[in-house]
Each structure stands twice: as C-alpha cells, then as structure tokens.
C-alpha cells in the first residue's frame, strides 16, 4: 500500500512539472495609448497547440492580424521554441478596456491567458507604436539640415550641411535623392563630396551614427525671411523584428522610408545705409585691392597691360570691379576678366581681375589716376575704402603729339591731344618682296610612278583579305560567338550610359552578362540557371570566388529592380561587372 502511494506521488509530481513548463500569455505593446494610436497584442506560447481562440477585443477594431510567427532554435544543445499570434488594434474611443482571455489546447490541456487592462486617452501629438516597423524606422532615422548662421547680412556666406543620422537599433542598406532644394533666392555652390564617411555622434542626447551627404554654400540675394527648401531622400531601412531564424538569429524587415530635412528659414539683414559709399557695388567680405602695370616705360605703339584686381574672402563672383580711367593719349581696349576663385565651407576665396591692354600713340608722360574700391567688412560691420596709387606711364620715343595740353574734367590731369601724324603707320612695310613660285610637273615624277604601280601592288592584298573574309563568313560558330561578345560590350556600354537610371541600368547589365555567357560558354538564355552557370565555369577552371561573384551580379540585377539603389551602388556594380568579365577572360 505504501509502495503504491509513493509511485502515485512521483507520477503527480512529474505531471505537475510537465504542466508547469508550458506557458501561454498575452503581451501588449503599451498599457496606455492615445485614441489616434495603435495597439499590438501578442499571444505567445512556448509549445505548439491547437484550436487557438482569440478574445473579442471589446472597444477596439482589428486592423491587422492574426499574424503568426514561429521561432525554433538550438542554443548550447537546448531547444527553444516560441509561437506567437499577433493582432493590431485601433481604439474606438477613450476609456479603460480589458483584453479578455484567449484559449488554446496543448497536449490535450486547455490553457488561458490572463486578462490585460489598457487605458485609452485623448489623441497624442505624435502617434507611437513601438512594434510597428514603419514607426521604428521613423523614430531612428533623421535627416538634418545644419545652417551655419540664421541671421546673415545680404551677400554674406552661410553653409548648409545635410546629415543623415541613423540609430544603432537599425541599419540603412540604400538611399537615393527624391527631391533636391532649388535655392531660388540664393547664389549657391555645392562642395564636392569625394567620399562619404560614417562618423559617431549624438542626436538629441542619444548616440547615433551619421554621414554628411551634402555641403552647400549659399549667398542670400534678397533681404527679409528666406526659405531654404528641404532635401528629401528615399531610404531603405532594415528594422529588427521579434522573429528569429532556425539558428536563433534575429530576422529583419526592410522598410522604404521617405525622410526630409525640413524647411529652414533665415532672416537676411540689409546692409546699413549709414556711411555707404557712392561707388559701392555690393562687395561683402574682407578684401585687398590694387592696380598694377607690367611696365611703366615704353615706346609709342608698344602695348602694356594694366591690371585691376581684388583678392580675399567674400562674394568675389557677385560684384563688379571698378573701371580704369586713362588719359586720351592711351588707346584702351576692352578688359579681359579672369577669376581664380575656390569655394569651401567658409565661402568664396581667391582673386578676380580685369586686365586692360593700353597702347600709347605719342611721346610723353601719361598719368593713370588713382582708382577706389569700396566693400562692406563683416568683422567690423562697416564700409571700407581702398584707393590705389597713381601710376605714370613714360613714353620715351615716338611722334610728338604737339604742345596743346587739355585738362580732364574728371581728374584734372594734363593730357596731350591725339592728332594724326605722317609717321603714324611707319611700322608697316611698303615693299612686299614677292618671289615667283617655281612650277613643278607631275608627269614622270615620283608621285606619278607611285599612283601608277599602287593598284597593281594592291591586287595580292585584295586576294588575301578576300580569302580571310570567306573563311570568317563560313565559321558559323565563331560568328555566333563574336556576335554575342559584341552584344555584351554593347549592353555593358549601354549600362554605363544609364548610370543613375536604376531600371534601365540593371536591365542593360543583365543583358550584358547573359550575352557574355553566350559568347564564352555557348549556352542560350533559356538554359542559364545559376547552378548550370556555376558548374560550367568550374569546368572551364574559373576560380570559385569569381564564379560566385558572377552569380552575385546576376542576383543583384534581379533584386535591384524592386528596391531603390543609389548612383554610387550602380557604379560599384558596373565596376564589379567589368572586373569579373575581365578576370574570366584571362582564366578562360
């Protein structure tokens, strides 16, 4: 009797332990939400069961589900199993609501979840759903436009740096520009970004990774409040889910998100009117000004160059240089404008100049009066004027222009009248020194005999090339290979032309790869399964890594038709295709 009691006790203990190992519970994404938010409810069990019955979800509308997910993994020799039924609910109004019990049968036993109470409040400013992949992507991906100065002067340089911040919780697989800002009220210059670099930083106090996508220098051309249009991107975001693969690794869901940097408004101040010079032409920055000549002594009818130049930092391309005024005895030609300006994050820097060609006609001294240049200095916020020195040109020899002196109304400097002289054109030759041309005869010349014998010598060449042409035409197999090879080169060049046009690029790339296989492996498109291609490349002693790269290119062409791709990614695929085809050619 005691023995039976012991066995019965052991049996009940084992049964209770077995039953205790089964779990079935209800989990909600949040217990308090706004009426404009959504709720996710998961019914999770650690053992497979039958006849699952959900509750009625009183007070909610089911907008998604049931979605079923199963996780089955082995870790350190121990099996871990999980099965989940998920529902997405939308509240019908405010109040406290109870998610009632769900039931399921596991090993002949009926299990029930515990009721869960949630509170629905008024609408929130920004709906949140921590289990929604679209929301997770939105919360962890930010495009920011950083403006260097929000209150600049007219024609003062400001910079806009666009940064894409990515949280460690997600990863970005691809991106492309959807809409670029126009900068209609600004003079703009984009700074060349040679390479994108991933850096670590913070966004609103949290650790983020970021990459600088674009840098632009802007010079406002109007005063008042100006709008900087947003940059808009389409980004492919990989968001981790609750599901896992058979090895226990977390599965990811790819979401295409559109992110924008947002409109930025700056208030542009007008330049002060107090102390503004009459000759001010809009130069803003820090400059140096000078007027120079390449010579100050010369003879009449010789030329000299006079250069008016401004150097420094500021809006060098956005104002006019002062004009050079010369005495009437110097013949002046239209100036040649030259710019050596570089643009970086601080704005424009370098120099601009106007070079005048001057030609004196008579002997004498010609003063080039001083020239003034005015600009607005941003450091002191005042106007400044720079005046060049007077330059005297001494014409040592030449015709005398007479003793009559005139006074210029503008600069009150003595000038000689320009008069005609009999020696004005003395530098022109009056004798041409022409010589008779000796006449040569074509008959019996070297050219005559070459033109006579060349057709006879060309007959053997025609016969040789004709024979080669017949052999080439009769080589049906070779012609087919050459045609396919020609098509491959054609489509690869077509792919290069379509860089930036994702659909056309990958269609042309796929055609090029297929026609290359036709040329080298002598197979048709209908027979191009990935396994057969890999087997044929292996039979031709092509390295396994190269064959894998070729197959990966084909898969990339198929996959890229349905997912967004950037120009840099297309360029990488094109370079990879060129390299792989060249490597296979060498190994074949």
TrEMBL record:
Superkingdom of origin = Bacteria
Sorted keywords for this record are:
Membrane, Signal, Transmembrane, Transmembrane helix
Can you tell me where the transmembrane regions are? Answer: 446-465
Listed Pfam families: BatD
Q: Signal peptide location in the record?
A: 1-20
Q: Which InterPro entries match?
A: BatD
The protein here is known as Protein BatD
Q: Which organism is it from?
A: Aquimarina mytili
């Amino acid at each position: 009797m005691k023995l039976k009691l012991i066995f019965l006790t052991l049996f009940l203990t084992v049964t209770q332990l077995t039953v205790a190992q089964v779990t079935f519970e209800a989990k909600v994404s949040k217990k308090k939400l706004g009426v404009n938010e959504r709720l996710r409810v998961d019914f999770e069990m650690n053992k497979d069961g039958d006849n699952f019955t959900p509750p009625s979800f009183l007070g909610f509308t089911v907008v998604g589900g049931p979605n079923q997910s199963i996780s089955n993994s082995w870790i350190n020799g121990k099996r871990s199993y999980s099965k989940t039924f998920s529902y997405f609910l939308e509240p019908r109004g405010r109040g406290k609501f109870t998610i009632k019990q769900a039931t399921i049968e596991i090993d002949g036993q009926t299990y029930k979840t515990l009721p869960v109470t949630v509170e629905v409040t008024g609408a929130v400013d920004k709906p949140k759903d921590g289990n929604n992949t679209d929301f997770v992507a939105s919360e962890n991906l930010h495009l920011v436009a950083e403006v260097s100065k929000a209150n600049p002067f007219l024609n003062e340089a400001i910079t806009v740096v666009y940064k894409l911040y990515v949280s460690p919780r997600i990863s970005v697989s691809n991106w492309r520009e959807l809409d670029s800002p126009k900068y209609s009220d600004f003079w703009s210059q984009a700074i060349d970004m040679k390479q994108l670099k991933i850096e670590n930083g913070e966004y609103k106090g949290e650790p983020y990774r970021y990459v600088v996508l674009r840098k632009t220098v802007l010079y406002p051309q109007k005063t008042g409040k100006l709008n900087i249009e947003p940059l808009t991107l389409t980004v492919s975001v990989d968001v981790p889910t609750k599901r896992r693969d058979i090895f226990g690794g977390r599965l990811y869901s790819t979401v295409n998100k559109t992110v924008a940097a947002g409109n930025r408004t700056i208030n542009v101040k007008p330049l002060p009117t107090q102390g503004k010079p009459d000759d001010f032409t809009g130069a803003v920055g820090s400059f140096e000004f000078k007027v120079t000549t390449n010579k100050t002594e010369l003879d009449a009818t010789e030329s000299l160059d006079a250069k008016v130049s401004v150097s420094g930092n500021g809006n060098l391309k956005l104002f006019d240089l002062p004009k050079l005024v010369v005495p009437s005895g110097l013949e002046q030609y239209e100036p040649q404008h030259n710019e050596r300006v570089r643009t970086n994050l601080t704005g424009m820097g370098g120099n601009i100049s106007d070079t005048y060609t001057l030609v004196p006609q008579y002997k004498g001294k010609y003063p080039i009066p001083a020239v003034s240049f005015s600009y607005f200095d941003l450091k002191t916020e005042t106007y400044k004027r720079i005046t060049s020195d007077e330059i005297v040109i001494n014409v040592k020899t030449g015709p005398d222009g007479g003793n009559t002196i005139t006074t210029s109304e503008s600069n009150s400097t003595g000038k000689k009248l320009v008069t005609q002289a009999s020696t004005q054109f003395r530098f022109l030759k009056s004798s041409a020194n022409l010589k008779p041309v000796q006449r040569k005869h074509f008959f019996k010349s070297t050219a005559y005999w070459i033109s006579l014998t060349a057709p006879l010598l060309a007959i053997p060449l025609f016969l040789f090339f004709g024979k080669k042409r017949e052999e080439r035409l009769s080589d049906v197999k070779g012609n087919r290979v050459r045609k396919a090879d020609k098509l491959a080169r054609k489509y690869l060049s077509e792919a290069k032309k379509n860089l930036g046009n994702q659909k056309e690029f990958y269609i042309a790339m796929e055609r090029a790869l297929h026609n290359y296989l036709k040329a080298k492996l002598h197979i048709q498109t209908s027979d191009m399964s990935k396994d057969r291609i890999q087997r044929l490349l292996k039979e031709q002693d092509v390295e396994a890594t190269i064959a894998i790269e070729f197959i990966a290119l084909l898969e990339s062409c198929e996959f890229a038709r349905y997912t967004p791709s950037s120009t840099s990614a297309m360029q990488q695929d094109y370079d990879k295709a060129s390299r792989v085809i060249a490597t296979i050619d060498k190994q074949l």
